[in-house]
Amino acid sequence: MNPDQHPAPPSDVPASDAVPEQVIDLGVRQLDGALVVAVSGEVDMLTTPTLRAHLQHHMEAHPDLLVVDLSGVTFLGSSGLAVLVAAAQRAKESGIPFRLVCTTRAVIRPLTATGLVDVLDIRQTVREALGDAAPTGG
What we know:
Oligomer: single chain
Number of helices: 5
CATH class: Alpha Beta
Shape: globular
Distance between the termini: 61 Å
Strand order of the largest sheet: 1-2-3-4-5
């Protein structure tokens, strides 16, 4: 074999295994004049571009309140944390209240470890996020 050539992947490896699938699901609904973005699955370096674009798109509509429901997230990596911080900053600059709904260890643990639990407006439920309850974080 020429040293500049690379062997082809084995023919018994399914094409779906060659490239990891994005394992994220995003849903949007309007409740009480607010926009609620429900995120489920893994939020990592493969899926954050999708999440970032989704949040930016919905911020352009300038909702009265943007709630990101992370209740269905099974993994939150550092790139996901960066997207959430950037979205919170952009929302603040645009005058849009921005709240997160977080209840699972997969989400709370990285937010706590990085100190973001004290910076972001975190609520326990979507209902709480839509109301006037005090934030759990800073």
